[in-house]
Design brief:
- Belongs to the peptidase S33 family.
- InterPro entries: AB_hydrolase_1 (IPR000073), AB_hydrolase_fold (IPR029058), Pept_S33_TAP-like_C (IPR013595), Serine_prot/Carboxylest_S33 (IPR051601).
- The chain is of the alpha/beta class.
- The protein is 42% helix and 11% strand.
- The chain contains 18 helices and 11 strands.
- The chain is globular, with a radius of gyration of 22 Å.
């Protein structure tokens, strides 16, 4: 079966200076001993009577705790914050393999809810591990960053012209200023580098000599940072739908190849839709379907389309579409067709009612509903790599990308709040080491493209890579239902032995 409860619950949530991998040691006076030796106060996950997520974790037998970590690792005796974790203890204690931390990317997507789902999805292999989820610092149930955003910038496009781009400049600047006003003391310490250090504090507090890790998408960068900084403490490491570690944070969004692959995926979808014009009425040929998409995009640039209570302009449409191209499932193709039908109706008649999925997407983009989630995610994206602060540089890049990929080029090249963000405390560290790891990638992924996974594989010289051919999924292990992939990954988790060579499924 293609879809599982793991996918249904998780899929909606699913990128310098040189550094060397060194063994990080603790000494009695380095300031970290108090954190490494802290007593973990396991407790109920339900925090209030209306905490449905916490109640579900309790019912699944999951334990929760708050771990103290330094806000600033260069000043460990200064202020501390808390990082929320959840643990589902191993049931096959005779073959116990230690803690396995999971991460769902984002960055900063909440993870705790997925701990029992991962336990179920991993079956006998997962039974040998303590499955541990960590809400990254400033996200989920950890010490929060919430900038009080009334709208979101991602995924927003630079649109069709300079006027649309200028609106995105104003939005990005406003969102950055809101964060600086409310969270100036926290923002410089939001980074994957610090999250990796938090992971090692958790490992030490659990009294585990090694920490295994399963990370998806941006979570692959977290795993890579961990093995770079703590190679001797790395257990069994799986990085799924990996990003290019040399393009961390928001920098990966502007990769020109991604936009071209997205245009190709849209054409693939249009081929399917054109074959069923009796159902969709979007065009009888590929070019007609693509022309329909272009028509509503340009109409939204002239005047925002009224979709339910939401004004949908040209900065929104590319992101709405690409979110439904993430995988090649039939349900995603049908939902995209239904979405385009709504947009066509709004363009032709002046208004239309959104599908439930589209209403959810627009609420996330145009209201403050997801402010905390998006604030934390942005803080990490801006903290992981420096970016240009020159507005005209972005505009020139937008125009160049538009020529390569008219719909999706301005989406990836758009300016972001990072152009107006406070500088992070630490610079990114290059990923170059030989720690054993397993990289898993779908060949047709249009978010973390195949070349990104290959770059991760190359930079982790001790790794092996599994490529799932001819599919477009973002998230492969446990998501796609590929017995070839799942068997190979489970074998590695079970034995600690990588495949003898790279594998194509």
């Amino acid at each position: 079966m293609r879809r599982t409860p793991w996918i249904a619950a998780v899929a909606a949530l699913l990128a310098a200076t040189a550094g060397q991998a060194t063994a990080a040691s603790t000494s009695p006076d380095d300031g970290l001993t108090q954190f490494h030796h802290q007593r973990i106060g396991w407790k109920s996950c339900q925090r209030s009577p209306d905490d449905v997520e916490g109640q579900a974790l309790d019912e699944a037998g999951v334990q929760c705790a708050d771990i103290r970590v330094p806000l600033d690792y260069s000043r460990p005796r200064g202020r501390s914050i808390t990082v929320a974790i959840a643990r589902s203890k191993a049931t096959d204690t005779a073959h116990y393999l230690g803690p396995l931390m999971i991460n769902l990317g984002g960055p900063a997507n909440p993870v705790l809810f997925a701990v029992p789902l991962a336990r179920q999805a991993m079956g006998a292999t997962g039974a040998r591990f303590d499955i541990v989820g960590m809400d990254l610092r400033f996200s989920g149930r950890s010490t929060p960053i919430d900038c009080g955003w009334p709208a979101s910038w991602l995924p927003r496009s630079a649109g069709t012209d300079r006027e649309s781009f200028d609106r995105m400049v104003a939005l990005s600047k406003d969102l950055a200023q809101r964060c600086a006003h409310t969270n100036a003391d926290l923002l410089p310490h939001a980074s994957t580098a610090n999250a990796a250090r938090d992971m090692d504090v958790i490992r030490a507090a659990l009294a585990a000599p090694r920490l295994s890790f399963l990370g998806y998408s941006q979570g692959s960068y977290l795993g890579a940072q961990y093995v770079q900084r703590f190679p001797e403490r790395a257990g069994r490491i799986v990085l799924d739908s990996a990003i290019d570690p040399d393009q961390p944070g928001v920098t990966i969004l502007a990769d020109p190849t991604v936009a071209v692959r997205r245009e190709a995926a849209l054409r693939q979808w249009a081929t399917l839709v054109a074959q069923h014009d009796d159902l969709f009425h979007l065009g009888t040929t590929v070019e007609q379907v693509l022309s329909t998409v272009s028509r509503v995009y340009l109409a939204a640039a002239t005047a925002p389309l009224r979709v339910g209570p939401y004004p949908v302009d040209d900065t929104l449409i590319p992101g709405i579409i690409v979110g439904l191209l993430t995988d090649d499932s039939e349900e995603a193709a049908l939902e995209l067709a239904a979405t385009v039908q709504v947009l066509v109706q709004a363009a032709d008649t002046g208004s239309a009612e959104p599908t439930p999925a589209l209403a959810t997407t627009l609420a996330g983009q145009l209201t403050g509903r997801d402010s905390a989630l998006r604030s934390a995610s942005t803080a990490f994206q801006c903290g992981d790599a420096p970016v240009s602060r020159n507005v005209e540089t972005y505009w020139r890049t937008v125009e160049a990308r538009r020529a390569q990929a008219p719909l999706f080029g301005p989406l990836g090249a758009n300016i972001t709040p990072c152009a107006f963000w406070p500088n992070p405390v630490q610079r990114p560290i290059l990923i170059r080491n030989g720690v054993p790891a397993l990289v898993v990638q779908a060949a047709g992924d249009i978010g973390a493209i195949l070349e990104f996974g290959q770059a991760m594989h190359q930079n982790l010289s001790g790794s092996r890579m599994i490529t799932l051919a001819e599919v477009r999924d973002h998230g492969v292990y446990l998501f796609r239902g590929s017995s070839c992939v799942d068997t190979a990954v489970n074998s590695y988790f079970d034995t600690g032995t990588l495949p003898p060579a790279d594998l194509t499924c």
